[in-house]
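Appendix B, record 7
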Amino acid sequence: MIKVGDSLPAATLMEYSEVDGEGCSIGPNPVDVSKAVAGKTIALFALPGAYTPTCSAKHVPGFVESADAFKAAGVDEIWCVSVNDAFVMGAWARDQKTGGKVRMLADGSADFAKATGLTLDLTSRGMGLRSNRYSMLVKDGKVATLNIEGPGKFEVSDAGTLLAQAKA
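Structure tokens (predicted):
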């Protein structure tokens, strides 16, 4: 399992874009994790699935509402990673109004989740292998803080906790 001090795994996430810009074409675009985090401070949070109750009602909204405070604390980008496809993440981004605040990144085959060791098996609930709920502060590709939730919990991966760590 990934821990503080480790580098993020080499992986490719997918991001849906509705408009051309900043080198991205319309549609899903690959995001090379290693290149995208180089020289940056990233507030990354992962969750079990788009449109799920806690994720939609609490997790994503907290980061959207705190986006300016994260920037003020020196965070370059906020990433939401979920085991969904890029089209679902794009639609969820529209619903959550994340534009310009939170990058909604798809880990469709759970490759990133598997590489971090932070998977959650929800097969019995009809959802298959998913990402565990967690947040981390990543500085130049290395994990600076890591907040992993217990099963069914939402206590330590919230925006407020990670923002306090970014300000420290």
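Remarks on this record: The two ends are 25 Å apart (CA to CA). The beta strands are 12-17, 27-32, 41-47, 77-82, 103-106, 119-122, 128-131, 134-139, 142-148.
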